[in-house]
Amino acid sequence: MAFEVNREGDVVVIDVDGQLIVGNRQELKQMILDQVEEGERKFLVDFTRTGYIDSSGLGVLVSLSKKIREKGGELRLSTLNEDLRTLFELTKLDTLFRIADSREEGLKDF
Amino acid sequence: MDRELVFELPNDLQCIEEAVEFVVGRCGGCVAAAEKLRFNFRVSLTEALANAMIYGNGRDPSKRVRVEMRMRSRALRVRVTDQGHGFDADTVPDPTRPENLECPGGRGIFLMRKLMDEVRYNERGNAVTLTLHLPESGPIRREASA
User: Fold this and answer.
1) Which of A88, B18, B34, B84 pairs with A71 at a CA distance of 20 to 30 A?
2) Which residue is closest to B101 within chain A, CA to CA?
3) How far is A106 from chain B (nearest CA, A)?
């Protein structure tokens, strides 16, 4: 698993390459928290290249979203495949996040 | 075709992804259940191993986790056993209730139960068996030849 971080205007876009699971979730968490500390407030996590996410990965997204919201920002998600979308629906986390069908849609009106 | 696999893992979260791929690779694939093997099984086994290491073995690096996989014509079963004292899986709160939605944890057992056909704990609560029913018509083939 690796992360690729790019900037689109004032939005930090993170591509998750591989799995987002218990063994690596802290890397994503720390990287985004560091950016929050530096003043970033808009984040888009893109899952185009992601295989699967476990409950720890979901938990990290939940806690990051809360933290960023408390700072007046937003964490959005984009490009979940059918399996990943099902995961968010089963856990009802699709009600917590704004989930875009594509990266472009996720960046729209951010 | 019957297949069995038994091995032990160190209590190290970094080993989980490789262990999951190892099991998936060794159990091969039933064509009709390929989708469930690819996603549902991978996520569920990851959850079972993580729970065993974090909660069962209490992150103790001296402890180990045992994995037993048994594939029969109609079902794939994996039993994950830790060296902890066990717990009652029925006491875990529903993570989809509004008051629990923003909790960072508590979704592992819920996901296993949603994604697998059967999830059973032993009486002590330190071993979980995940079962995936395999469709009768699905010919067995090795994943590498897919």
Assistant:
1) A88
2) A93
3) 22
User: Is A84 inside a domain boundary?
Assistant: no
SS3 for B19-83 is HHHHHHHHHCEEHHHHHHHHHHHHHHHHHHHHHHHHHHCCCCCCCEEEEEEEECCCEEEEEEECC
In whole angstroms, give the CA distance from residue A52 to residue A57.
Answer: 9
A96: contact with B, CB 8 A cutoff? yes
CATH code 3.30.160.40 for B3-139? no
Tell me how far apart the alpha carbons of residues A42 and B48 are, in angstroms, rounded to a whole number: 34
Quote the CA–CA distance of A47 and A106 in Å, as a whole number: 12
Q: What is the ipTM of this complex?
A: 0.90
Q: What are the tens digits of pLDDT across the range A37-66? A: 999 999 999 999 999 999 999 999 999 999
Chain A CA closest to residue B49: A22
* pLDDT tens profile B119-131: 999 999 999 999 9
Name the domain count of chain A: 1
Q: Which chain B residues are Cβ-neighbours of A26 within 8 angstroms? A: none
The answer to whether residue A26 scores a pLDDT higher than 50 is yes
Q: What is the reported pLDDT for B146?
A: 34
Residues of B in contact with A66 (CB under 8 A): 102
Average pLDDT over chain B, rounded to whole? 89
Query: Binning pLDDT at 50, 70 and 90, where does residue B32 land?
Result: low
